[in-house]
Design brief:
This protein is α+β, with helices and mostly antiparallel strands and 134 residues long. It is built from 3 helices and 5 strands.
Length: 134
């Protein structure tokens, strides 16, 4: 029952396995891949599912100062709540890398509903730094 809920399908990115067939992904690995797919897809990129994705890309030119981390967190939470029903998002932390201007880390804390196991995924995100951030 648990595996039925979590699912099994093509791996992301699409590739081949050791037998030359389509690489497959299942269980909690498929959830992590789905999260990355949602965050990397901008709404409108998929013709048959034009609302799918997140507006995270809108934050590229915002720099990492001010309220940008809160906006990034909100964008991530909203997209995952809509497009990934297998998880509950517990928290999204956005921190900048002091050594690399424009780079921030989106730390997504989530719980897999089928197993009730907590997980986290750190997603790197690059912005164009403001002049004052360099």
């Amino acid at each position: 029952m648990r595996d039925d809920f979590i699912g099994f399908g093509w791996a992301f990115p699409v590739g081949v396995d050791s037998t030359g067939g389509i690489a497959m992904s299942g269980g909690e690995q498929s959830i992590e891949q789905a999260i990355q797919l949602i965050l990397r897809t901008y709404p409108g990129e998929r013709p048959m599912r034009w609302q799918f994705g997140s507006f995270l890309r809108d934050r590229v030119f915002d720099g990492i100062g001010g309220d940008t981390p809160a906006r990034i967190s909100g964008d991530v939470q909203q997209a995952l709540a809509r497009w990934e029903p297998r998880i509950d998002v517990d928290d999204v932390d956005v921190t900048d890398d002091p050594d690399r201007p424009g780079l921030c880390y989106i730390d997504i804390h989530y719980t897999v509903k089928a197993t009730n196991h907590p997980h986290n995924l750190v997603f790197p995100f690059y912005t164009i730094p403001d002049e004052g951030e360099r």
